[in-house]
Specification:
alpha+beta, Elongation Factor Tu (Ef-tu), domain 3, OB fold (Dihydrolipoamide Acetyltransferase, E2P), 4 domains, ten-stranded mixed beta sheet
């Protein structure tokens, strides 16, 4: 079955004699056998998006069917790998063709020659159903790769290998189901645009603990949840995602560099292999997958890279792991949709984006979730997408449509970033809808009053924002002392708690219990200070420099495994104010 090219428009190809082909089928385009996907079928005509550079392609060259949709090879060798948008290994490509991806290199994927130490889990005569684990491979020091029966496959084991060293192409288990024979290897194929099936999607009840104070206490993320991190240029989107990748308590990280600048992606590719996993003291890459699709790579592959990443995440979720996927950035993905839509001559919607932009964004975030898998294990996919609105304008279509489909919104503020306040998450515009779902977990695992404390501190920040408007007009001196105390406490809260230093060993990651105790110290200062102000103690005395300095420095002085210094500081604050109140009452 062969078609013929009749039009070439960048990555969009039109072909004739295509009546035997299928929608979304993967095809080989031209004599170079470029990889493409059919996106429109009209009678004898088809429109194809090509995932490689099309320069040099000619009218009349053939289109050859592969018989399957764009699919990933899922098996040992994914972890620690660096792939392009359609799961081709960039390290291997670099060995074949140094410095660039050659045209027509084909769908090379996982290493087919490498031998893996396979532990067999089944015997002849066992009944297996979809999702069952029939073998395992210790893929890295951190992760055991569980080899599962693909969805929609089941039967009786009629042949099985012994435990030993095999490559991924070896048939490990043979299943028989009536007249059908299934040969199971160490990998399976899955079409990227189809969500992998689960037994049941569950309600969210566990937080994704990140060690970042403003996120964990003020705007918590959830395992199986969705989050958007929008921000203009230089506000720290990539740095925030790096911190989440390194410190969050997800088992596996999938990082998608989608349409980012080459120098930014180079920094990611150089930095990630050097990062040490705080759990194991081994390289973080042992539980990370990087998908690199820079802005100068073919635009169609950028559109596919998001689906490649989420499919890999779902595959590891099916093994019972908690996976966090970082997409940086979904704006570049939306721009790829816009470019392809323009070449297809579709009617543009708002700001030139296609009319189906909201549904595509929804489809992507919908694949997050906490679920019971086909094999009975529990796993989750948490999706954290960075959004890069032009000029930091949050009213543009990608940010607004993303906001509709995510439950946590961490808006980055350029004024905070320019003031070197990182993470530059604006506490006035950010929110998390997961708080009611996670309340019980926080009360059981942190403290009973942690949610009340959070609300109290946020209220202070809101009040301070209103007071600062008055201060701009008439100055701080005209405010009563109780309002000046709110400003002083909010200042303390911002510097001592919300601002976090990623380059300081103690401050880069903070356990939840320490976060709570730090917030209790600031609350103690405000409560005792309010008591003092009420009996007439001047704010200049209440805002004692020595006490405030100790509060500001606690994030650098208190070890993460011993909180006694925080308890001592709380006692010092109580003693200071008790003496002060006693003195002024006399």
């Amino acid at each position: 079955m062969e078609g013929k090219i009749v039009l070439i428009n960048g990555p969009v190809i039109k072909a004739l004699h295509m009546q035997g082909f299928k929608m979304r089928e993967m095809v080989m385009v031209g004599f170079k056998k470029l990889i493409g996907e059919i996106i429109i079928l009209e009678g004898d005509f088809a429109t194809i998006q090509v995932y490689e550079e099309t320069s040099g392609l000619k009218i009349g060259e053939p289109i050859v069917s592969t018989g399957s949709p764009l699919s990933l090879k899922l098996g040992p060798g994914i972890l620690g790998g660096i792939f392009d948008g359609i799961e081709r290994p960039l390290k291997k490509i670099n060995e074949i063709s140094y410095g660039f991806i050659p045209e027509g290199i084909g769908l090379i994927s996982l290493d087919e020659e490498k031998l893996w130490n396979v532990e067999i889990k089944v015997n002849i005569g066992d009944e297996l159903k979809e999702g069952d684990i029939y073998a395992s491979v210790q893929e890295t020091n951190a992760i055991v790769h569980k080899i599962m029966v693909p969805p929609n496959v089941f039967g009786t084991v009629i042949d099985v290998k012994e435990s030993g060293f095999y490559n991924i192409e070896t048939t490990i288990v043979t299943l028989k189901q009536e007249n059908k024979i299934y040969e199971l290897k160490l990998y399976q194929y899955w079409p990227v645009r189809n969500p992998r099936p689960v037994k049941e999607k569950k309600s969210i009840f566990k937080p994704l603990v990140t060690g970042q104070r403003i996120i964990d206490i003020f705007f918590p993320l959830a395992k199986g949840g969705t989050c958007a991190i929008p921000g203009g240029f230089g506000t720290g989107k990539t740095m925030t995602q790096h911190q989440l990748a390194k410190w969050s308590d997800a088992d596996i990280i999938v990082y998608i560099g989608c349409g980012e600048r080459g120098n930014e992606m180079t920094e990611v590719l150089e930095d990630f292999p050097k990062l040490i996993d705080p759990r194991t003291n081994m390289p973080l890459m042992n539980r990370t997958v990087l998908i690199a699709n820079t802005s100068n790579m073919p635009v169609a592959a950028r559109e596919a890279s998001i689906y490649t990443g989420i499919t890999i995440a779902e595959y590891f979720r099916d093994m019972g792991y908690h996976v966090a996927i970082m997409a940086d950035s979904t704006s570049r993905w939306a721009e790829a949709l816009r470019e392809i839509s323009g070449r297809l001559e579709e009617m543009p919607a708002e700001e030139g984006y296609p009319a189906y932009l909201p549904s595509r964004i929804a489809e992507f975030y919908e694949r997050a979730g906490y679920s019971t898998n086909l094999n009975g294990t529990e796993g989750s996919v948490t999706v954290i997408g960075a959004v890069s609105p032009a000029g930091g304008d949050f009213s543009e279509p990608v940010t607004q449509n993303t906001k509709r489909f995510v439950s946590a919104f961490l808006g980055l503020d350029k004024n905070l970033a320019y003031a070197r306040h990182y993470p530059a998450i604006n506490w006035l515009s950010s929110y998390s809808s997961y708080l009611p779902l996670l309340k019980e977990w926080y009360e059981e695992n942190v403290a009973e009053d942690v949610i009340i404390l959070r609300e109290k501190m946020l209220k202070l920040l809101y009040e301070e924002n209103q007071l600062l408007e008055i201060v701009k007009l008439v100055g701080e001196d005209v405010l009563p002392d109780d309002q000046r105390l709110i400003i002083e406490t909010a200042k303390c809260l911002k510097s001592a708690f919300l601002q976090q230093n990623a380059y300081n060993d103690l401050d880069t990651y903070v356990p939840l219990n320490k976060q709570y105790k730090m917030l209790k110290v600031i609350e103690s200062f405000y409560d005792k200070g309010s008591e003092a102000v009420k009996i007439g103690v001047p704010i200049s005395v209440v805002a004692n420099k020595d006490i405030l300095e100790k509060i500001y420095k606690m994030k650098y002085n208190v070890p993460n495994n011993d909180f006694s210094l925080i308890d001592d500081l709380k006692k010092d604050i109580a003693e200071f104010f008790d003496k002060l109140i006693e003195k002024y009452r006399k």
